[in-house]
Write a structure and sequence with these properties.
With about 300 residues, this protein is of the alpha/beta class. The protein has one domain: 3-Layer(aba) Sandwich (UDP-N-acetylmuramoyl-L-alanine:D-glutamate ligase). Helices cover about 35% and strands about 25% of the residues. The protein has eleven helices and 13 strands. Strands 5-4-1-8-9-10-11-12-13 form a nine-stranded mixed beta sheet, sandwiched between helices. A hairpin with a 2-residue loop joins β12 and β13. α3 packs parallel to α5, α8 runs antiparallel to α9 and α9 crosses α11. The longest helix is centred in the C-terminal third of the chain and has 18 residues. The two termini are about 35 Å apart.
Length: about 300
């Protein structure tokens, strides 16, 4: 059996200040690269590329400790770690602004001639687009959207979309990118897969083979929804790789992604997915399968 492709994530490493049902937290570790890597590393090794300030290194190291996560491509900058502020309302985050000067001092680093699977998580679109250009040799190249950046830098956001083979977004981001009918949008942008995230409505993947839907788990708390989408992508791609990356494995991979999201949102920040184990993930996947059977 051929060796499975490597998995790489390029994205943000953040210190978040957020308000929600959980109260208010300051300087909580987050970021698209962190959530993706913690979810994926429950199943396969993953490489991480992203910038972090010296003020965030200790928290990042502690969160990733003991996981098969390669941080060789993480750049430690003298600039402050990316900051993001948000307020959670009705299960969604309202963006209250960010401080992203660290992207002025950083350019994406990726393995030369990378031929594995790569995910460019949400970050400032000019750097996300740059990462996508550098990863043109990847066997699978996926990207995620962030509403505020889609609105602030639409040309760069659409450049990212145009280079992706798989694209992840929620309903608001989909609308901001001109989305209407998902299948038409997928074909318009030459996507192999479009994954629409609907919070409590679950996750739906659109491919040339049709539509695959996996519901969210109703029996676990949605305490802090930050990072759920990145966890979906990390769990989905890691599971798909670990089971042979066959087309008929997409539903199983999505089930794993939804299970990773469930483990993420039941705690603040990365705490839930960072403390999860492969056994706990297996049990949560079984719950998603049961929910899927009831829905069908």
């Amino acid at each position: 059996m051929p060796e499975a492709p490597e998995l790489l994530v390029v994205g943000s490493i953040a210190l978040d200040t957020r308000e929600g049902p959980f109260g208010k937290v300051k300087e909580e570790l987050g970021g698209s690269a962190v959530y993706f890597a913690l979810a994926a590393s429950l199943l396969v090794p993953v490489k991480v590329s992203g910038p972090v300030g010296r003020d965030g290194v200790r928290r990042l190291t502690k969160a990733l400790e003991g996981r098969p996560i390669d941080t060789t491509l993480v750049h430690v900058s003298d600039a402050p770690t990316y900051r993001w502020k948000a307020r959670q309302e009705h299960g969604r985050n309202v963006d209250l602004g960010s401080a992203d000067r660290i992207y002025d001092d950083w350019e994406p680093q990726v393995p030369p001639e990378f031929t594995g699977w790569a995910f460019a998580g949400s970050m400032r679109p000019d750097r996300q687009a740059q990462a996508m250009r550098m990863l043109g040799s990847a066997r699978l190249l996926a990207a995620d959207a962030m509403l505020s950046y889609v609105k602030q830098q639409p040309p760069q956001a659409k450049d990212v979309l145009g280079r992706a083979s798989w694209f992840f977004c929620n309903e608001e981001e989909f609308a901001a990118l001109g989305g209407g009918d998902p299948e038409h949008f997928r074909r318009q942008w030459w996507l192999e897969g479009l994954v629409l995230k609907a919070g409590l409505g679950g996750v739906t993947a659109h491919t040339a083979d049709g539509r695959v839907h996996v519901p969210a788990l109703p029996d676990h708390p949605a305490f802090d929804t930050t990072g759920a989408g990145d966890a979906v992508a990390g769990g989905m791609f890691a599971r798909w790789l670990s089971t042979g990356a066959q087309r008929n494995g997409l539903q199983d991979a999505l089930v794993c992604g939804v299970a990773c999201a469930s483990l993420t949102i039941e705690s603040i920040g990365v705490r839930g997915i960072a403390s999860a184990t492969p056994k706990l993930l297996e049990e949560r996947m079984a719950e998603v399968w049961e929910c899927l059977k009831r829905e069908s």
